[in-house]
Amino acid sequence: MAGARARTVYVCSACGAESPKWAGRCPECGAWNTLGETTVQAAAPPRGGARAGYAGAAGRGGPVRLSEVHGGEAERLATGIDELDRVLGGGLVPGSVVLLGGDPGVGKSTLLLQATAAVADRVGTHYVTGEESPEQVALRAARLGLAGAPLALLAETAVERIVAEAERARPAVMVVDSVQTLWTEALQSAPGSVAQVRESAAHLTRFAKASGTTVLLVGHVTKEGTLAGPRVLEHMVDTVLYFEGEPGGRLRMVRAVKNRYGAVNELGVFAMTDRGLRAVGNPSAIFLSRHGDAVPGSVVMAALEGTRPLLVEVQALVDRSPLANPRRLAQGLDGARLAMLLAVLHRHGGVALLDQDVYVNVVGGVRVAETAADLPVVLAALSSFRGRPLPRELVVFGEVGLAGEVRPVPGGEQRLREAARQGFRHAIVPRGNAPKGGIEGLALHVVTRLQEALEAAAALA
Ligand code: TYD
Ligand code: MG
């Protein structure tokens, strides 16, 4: 531990706040029984060998002129798995730390084994397994047809020994599966505790920055949907990817929620097969369910995930509620926004759903975070309420404001072109999103107010 002075602090596992004293309740977020012991090192200067692109850490003496710092794009190592490279922002950045989070069984180990095997014949790689034995990893590799890949397997959970091995062999890429199994000699607390996870990850991060090795950490997601030792790890690493999928389904999505080296909200799509994960190169239409006939409550939305248009089906079920406080449930969408949209529909559309339960869902386990889902949600809810289906070849997107206005969203033309390419014939879109020349094959119903959108939908239904 490079002789740095250590002091003991207590870290909240819910919010990541530090306090000098232990307490039963976190003084920052108010959660109970979340403080755990950890030590922090006084900042030590990074060891030599740091390269341009990430050499900006502390400990380099006085200030330097910005123009004299070589901030050029570090050369990336493409894994060759396109769906993963895109989410990373073009490949692995030397010296960066990537955290891959996801539910147990979603395929984290499979993805990283495939990724390391794909680069192993070009650069040195370590696959550190703390959860499974080398035999289990070898069995999986054989199943994936990767038994011959020249990667070094290390069954180890002590972070000091993992780093010692890596300092000796200097791999370009190191996977640590999983961060929850790690422990460090510097602390007394049990492996898996927040303090251990945090300090172990910090140690690996210091190693990555100093050596130029790319470190990929696997992190399990807890029942509450957060990474164990959550915020603390997200602050520490350069990139946070989440691996998610529909329970029981074959489709898997990797999404960047933080990326110091690329855009967030890029989406990588895979299918889990009996021989591992296969990239789904053109996923724009795979999330559309194919009912025979048009059904009430279903609207196809043209979403934009990162740089890619994606057509997804928004479904709503509106039904008379037996409850005094009717239910509002949003799956794959923001629940608070649903409540807001229903209020706008009441005030500006004259449709009251106060005594109705409202459920909305995005088909295929996709999560849509953009406001472009507003108009599809409103039209789906109304379609279900009235029991009147919208035509199957209709696509919708647009943001709905509190004043009942329909606002444009980014990438309108791109969304519309993809919809036309997939055979859609009608689109209800915000005025600001309608391209001047129109879109061939697509009838555009341009709206600026919610009321106009409701009328356009009623005319089509
Ligand atoms: P795994 O990568 O072990 O998940 P994680 O590391 O996120 O816990 O993947 C486990 C699941 O994937 C398991 O249910 C089996 C399935 N699987 C396949 O369907 N095909 C395959 O080729 C492999 C290796 C796993
Ligand atoms: Mg695993």
- CATH architecture verdict of the largest domain: 3-Layer(aba) Sandwich
Oligomer: single chain
Give the termini distance in whole angstroms.
69 Å
Uncertain parts: 43-56
Q: Look at the structure and give the CATH class of the largest domain.
A: Alpha Beta
Proportion of helical residues:
10-25%
- Structural class of the helix and strand makeup? alpha/beta
Can you count the helices?
Answer: 10
The 3D shape can be described as: globular
CATH superfamily label of the largest domain = P-loop containing nucleotide triphosphate hydrolases
Which small-molecule species are bound to the chains here? thymidine-5'-diphosphate, magnesium ion
Q: Total number of β-strand segments?
A: 21
Describe this structure in words.
A 9-stranded mixed sheet has the order 6-5-7-8-4-9-10-11-12, with helices on both faces. A 7-stranded mixed sheet has the order 15-16-14-13-17-20-21. It has a 3-stranded antiparallel sheet with strand order 2-1-3. Strand 18 (399-400) and strand 19 form a beta hairpin. It is built from 10 helices and 21 strands. The protein has 3 domains: 7-40, no CATH class; 77-281, P-loop containing nucleotide triphosphate hydrolases (Rossmann fold, 3-Layer(aba) Sandwich), CATH 3.40.50; 285-460, Ribosomal Protein S5, domain 2 (2-Layer Sandwich), CATH 3.30.230.10. It is of the alpha/beta class and 461 residues long. Helix content is 25%, strand content 26%. Helix 4 (159-169) runs parallel beside helix 5 (194-211). Mean pLDDT is 88; it is low at 43-56.
Write a compact overview of the structure shown.
The chain has 10 helices and 21 strands.
